[in-house]
Write a structure and sequence with these properties.
By secondary structure, this protein is α+β, with helices and mostly antiparallel strands. It contains eight helices and 16 strands. Strand 6 and strand 7 form a beta hairpin.
């Protein structure tokens, strides 16, 4: 039933309608919806950067709220790679170097995930990946797992399937089918990608350097190349915010596996928070 609904529901229309409601500026409705949301999802309001709930102008503003980062301490060890988001670590591991280059235990390929971008596919065909699912209760801003210089950003149009586990397990290639923003960085551990994946109700994806990437939805791949802008390099430190969802989805973080050692005691479907250790980096000497 879940799968049938996902295939036939007007996902873009639903997302647009919910997005309109979430942007409603009626103060009473906004305040009541925030209170209901906090109660249902047990949001820890002590972490909020803005504690006065009446100061949020829309539900979306609260949903994409900032938190006081003293509650997410960043490990300053330069070899430590941290979790980029609060959520559930649904998958992690190595790409299988086969003809289809499938991510282990799931049927989506590196080629399709990276929208057939040949240079990036070649870079990451021996990759290590971490997939973090953000549920409605989570903080919805995405941070840097290590220091990095932005090289390029791609917007890939697509569907808006739910990425909840009940759906994820049933729809093959789901992350490659959904709309997403791919951000390529250079780090001292080699190239790194963070992919912000859209889903139903997740109507908007932002990055800190560009602002709102989607919508509008024009149905075409878009590319922004930052590598030629030598005078204004976009450098983000470990722990810096790099983007956020207005309503949430999934973040996929990818490194080259020869430069990365998995962190200890990682388990699929562990709850994680920004600052948790994902891996250890080996400095790229090339």
């Amino acid at each position: 039933m879940y799968i049938i609904l996902q295939k036939f529901l007007p996902k873009f229309l639903i997302t647009k309608c919910i997005g309109w409601i979430a942007e409603c500026k009626c103060k009473i409705l906004v305040y009541l919806s925030i209170l209901i949301f906090i109660k249902i999802y047990k949001i820890n309001i002590k972490e909020l950067k803005i504690l006065n709930l009446k100061s949020y102008s829309s539900f979306n503003e609260f949903f994409s709220r900032k938190i006081n980062m003293i509650f997410r301490p960043i490990n300053l060890d330069p070899t430590v790679i941290i979790c980029p988001a609060d959520g559930i670590l649904t998958q992690f591991g190595y790409f299988e170097d086969t003809q289809t280059l499938q991510i282990k235990n799931h049927g989506y390929t590196v080629q399709s995930l990276l929208a057939e971008n040949e240079k990036m596919v070649e870079l990451f065909k021996h990759g290590i990946f971490f997939t973090t699912y953000l549920s409605p209760k989570n903080y919805h801003r995405v941070h840097m797992p290590c220091d990095g210089v932005l090289i390029k950003m791609l917007y890939i149009p697509g569907q808006l399937f739910s990425v909840h586990k009940k759906i994820f397990d049933k729809i093959p290639n789901i992350f490659s089918k959904n709309e997403r923003v791919i951000c390529l960085f250079n780090t001292k551990f080699g190239p790194m990608i963070q992919i912000l994946v859209g889903s139903i109700i997740c109507g908007t994806i932002f990055t800190t350097w560009y602002g709102k990437v989607t919508p509008p939805r024009e149905g075409i791949i878009k590319l922004w190349n930052y590598s030629n802008n030598l005078n204004q390099k976009i450098f983000l430190k470990k722990g810096d915010e790099m983007g956020f969802f207005a309503l949430g989805s999934t973040v996929i973080t990818i490194f080259i596996k020869e430069n990365i050692l998995l962190g200890e005691n990682l388990h699929a479907y562990d709850a994680v928070r920004i600052g948790n250790i994902l891996a250890y980096g080996i400095q790229n000497k090339k």
